Amino acid sequence: MRIHLSIALFILLLSGSIGCSDKRTAEEKICREAVDRHIWCVGEVFDKEMAAVAHSTREERIKTCVKDERIRERYQACLPEKGCDAFTDCLIDDAGKTGSRPAAGTTRKEQESREIPDD
Q1: Which of 110, 118, 116, 28 is nearest to 76 (CA)?
Q2: Domain residue ranges of the chain, discontinuous segments joined by +
Q3: pLDDT tens across 61-72, in order?
């Protein structure tokens, strides 16, 4: 009887972990897709050098996104937009609504790492 109870408890714990893992995987998928799209758009709108700068912070930006619900919501809202202009405009518009604008005096590289181009 103890063996069956231990197995049942293990399965219950495992199923709870899988549920959390599925949520984390979905969150990470949104973040990876959005960050990768942003990097690609930077290359399209600017050049490969700027895309390389954006790519240099890719993993850090994905980790930040996974931890920050507001960023994930912004990305999720903007991902359906067609084309780079619409996607980046959506990010900028949404950032303006939330007051998330680049600080005065920040460099272009700093702004790109935050995914908000200057005006």
Answers
A1: 28
A2: 17-113
A3: 999 999 999 999
